[in-house]
Input
Amino acid sequence: MKKPDAIIFDLDGTLWDSTEGIYDALMSLKEDFPEGTPPISKEKLDSCMGLPMDEISRRLFPTAKEEDRDAMMERFTEYELQHLKRVGGTLYPCIEEMLKDLSQDYPLFIVSNCQLGYIEVFLKYYGFDKYITDHLSWGATERPKGENLVTIAEKHALQTPIYIGDTRGDELAARYANMKFVFLPYGFGKAEAPDLTISDLCQLRDHLKELSWD
Output
């Protein structure tokens, strides 16, 4: 029976929740929003989590011209990273223990639709660099998550990696990359037909035994 040879994680809604800090950073720039921008609630921002940054831009500033929207997002994401460097986010249960344990036997990766620098802020804030073999973001490639999963798999010669995430988009990305998908229902979305659904990552090592490629 084949076993996973690597574990790839989504970030937002999977390893941490940074939406409070992100929303605070966004609202601090409210006076500079493009004219006609509709009100942005935290719920609206939460609904954007996991989407590529260009799609988030269109949803937050739907009435703005593309150049104005791009300029606003560039300023926002720069301020967001600086803010998160100071305040961090909220880790989900058992994250550090799980990463420390599994990194002894598996290469661990992060693939996210975030901007360039966001994964790096997460890793540095918590000192998790030592657990993660590699990572890739939308901001680094401006390519869909499924393609970035393929890139990671090819770069590290992975044969049976699994992807762990919290949205239908994560599920579709895993399918595109021909990977098993483990769904976490506590995050920001839903899934249709994951290979495995688990309530948290505390006993991930034991749950990996439930996956089969035969």
Q: What stands out?
A: Strands lie at 6-9, 16-17, 90-91, 108-112, 134-137, 161-165, 180-183, 196-197. The two ends are 6 Å apart (CA to CA). The mean pLDDT is 94. The domain at 6-17+90-210 is CATH 3.40.50.1000 (Rossmann fold).
